[in-house]
Specification:
The protein is an alpha/beta fold. The protein has a single domain, classed as Nucleotidyltransferase, domain 5, CATH 3.30.420.10. Helices cover about 35% and strands about 20% of the residues. The chain has six helices and five strands. The protein has a five-stranded mixed sheet with strand order 3-2-1-4-5. The longest helix is centred in the last third of the chain and has 16 residues. The chain is globular. It starts with about 25 loop residues before the first strand and ends with a helix. This is Integrase catalytic domain-containing protein.
Length: about 190
């Protein structure tokens, strides 16, 4: 179970209400943590996806699931997107990493508004849960991973080269996330 609730932490509101695609890039980002089994023990992967394009814009993988893991993934997303003109909603489950004071400070410093779904309701973060299913069914669970190093390298490669640049999505016109973002950007520049 990756969702460990901190009952003492202030809980952000659910600003998304299962509407992950706001119709524009960088309006809603979804995030979560999943377990990855290796021959050397568990790894934990945190990913951040753009709700509109479905692109994984930040990710971090390590042998722990402390808030530092989430912060590293969100920091990658912020670095990839640059300075954001408007606030982005960062939506996740109620795991203690996402409700922590550490992540609250980081989010504030980077113009991110935190949002969380209800406890134990996976549909409130369904877009991210769907990504985990895709990762595991189409890639990760098809292999045995004797070492953590091999798993880290392969997961990063799959996210960046396969999922973001080749895997098509029915929700975005049967093209990959990078092509979808390029199409949106070109349309906006032409207008």
């Amino acid at each position: 179970m990756t969702t460990i609730v901190d009952l003492d932490a202030p809980v952000p509101k659910d600003l998304v209400k299962r509407h992950f695609d706001a119709g524009e890039l960088d309006r809603v980002w979804t995030s979560d943590i999943t377990y990855l089994r290796t021959g050397e023990g568990w790894l934990y992967l945190c990913a951040v996806r753009d709700g509109c394009s479905r692109r994984v814009i930040g990710w971090a993988i390590d042998d722990h699931m402390r808030t530092d893991l989430v912060e590293a993934a969100v920091a990658m997303a912020v670095a990839m997107r640059g300075e954001l003109a408007e606030q982005v909603v960062l939506h996740a489950d109620r795991g203690c990493q996402f409700t922590s004071a550490q992540l609250a400070r980081f989010a504030h410093d980077h113009n991110l508004t935190r949002s969380v779904g209800r406890t134990g309701v996976c549909w409130d973060n369904a877009q991210q849960e769907s990504f985990w299913a895709t990762l595991k069914v189409e890639f990760y669970d098809r292999y045995l991973w004797p070492t953590q190093a091999a798993a880290k390298l392969a997961v990063g490669d799959w996210i960046e080269r396969v999922y973001n640049r080749r895997r098509r999505h029915s929700a975005i016109g049967m093209i990959c996330p990078v092509d979808y973002e390029n199409r949106i950007t070109q349309t906006a520049q032409a207008a």
